[in-house]
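Dear all,

This email documents one entry for the complex benchmark we are building for the journal club exercise. For each entry we list the sequence lines for every component of the assembly. Then comes the predicted three-dimensional structure of the complex as a token string, followed by one or two observations. Please use this as the template for your own entries, and keep the labels exactly as they appear.
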Amino acid sequence: MRTVHTLKELRVILQSYRQQGKRIGLVPTMGNLHDGHLSLVQKAMEAADVVVTSIFVNPMQFAAGEDLDNYPRTLKDDQHKLSATGNTLVFAPSVEEIYPRGLTNQTQVVVPDVSEGHCGASRPGHYDGVATVVTMLFNMVQPDVAVFGEKDFQQLAVIRKLTTDLFLPIDIIGVATVREDDGLAKSSRNGYLSAEQRSLAPALFRVLRDTAEQLETDPQASFAALEAAARQQLSDQGLRPDYINIVHSQTLKAAQPQDTQLTILAAAYLGSTRLIDNISITR
Ligand code: PAF
């Protein structure tokens, strides 16, 4: 497995793979890899001949006051984990490589509608930063297929929409969230939790599961009442809810009684750490 840091090196290597007729897969990450990321690489390896994993902590998707400076940068460990998966190539560019003219005048990709609401409302500009860097990575790698986790359900919807709207010839694959034994979704941000916060964190998925069960068993249940009850349960269990929204799984709009595919999107704080999760049901 090779690691390259510049677009120039990346293009030389990928051109040779392309000449050999190889199908190229991309797994964009911000590093600090855990089993969730490795499951994305695994999926990419099933779908492509060569897999590029990008590791780039993208400043454009962090607002002022968020955890950009503290975000864990663990390239050596990440390389070690990736080499065990059979991953082909790591692309670990510097901020200057991706934004050579700085961030201020950078052209941005804004994906209307699905970027709005939920995490988009709590983190204004976040999905513009994600959509911009992912589009840049798509142009740099020109993959046949790209793989993303379902843990950030809204992010996956944003990326699917930009790929469709911009006619990008890339198959987007979503992969189910990998969880700890107690149900907590694996996330780089779990590392910020104190021991006490870590013991409280599984409540997020527990509440999602209970709410999903009620949605499945009671077709008449009021969405607003379920959301309010879920928020209360999170508070009772020591989390500070940001939002719990029951939405249509494709449009991410507030669910309507006749909808059959529903997703519950949630974000909650433990101290200053913001955790996200979701659960989908068909009824
Ligand atoms: O999900 C992430 O890790 C990031 O948002 C992504 C897709 C790598 C873009 O920076």
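Observations: The first helix runs from residue 7 to 19. The two ends are 45 Å apart (CA to CA).
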